[in-house]
Amino acid sequence: MSLLQVNHMTHYFGGLRAVYDYNLNIEPGVIHGLIGPNGAGKTTIFNLITGIYTPSEGEILLDGKSIKGMPPHLVAAAGLARTFQNLRLWRHMTVLEHIKLARYSKISYGLAGAFFNTPKRVKEENEITRISMDLLNLVGISHLADTVVTNLPYGAQRRVELARAMAIEPKVLFLDEPTAGMNPEEMLEMEKIIRQVMEQFNLAIFLIEHRMRLVMDLCDYIQTLVFGEVVAEGLPEEIRNNPIVIDAYLGKEVET
Question: For domain 1-79+170-256, is the CATH number 3.40.50.450?
Answer without folding.
Answer: no
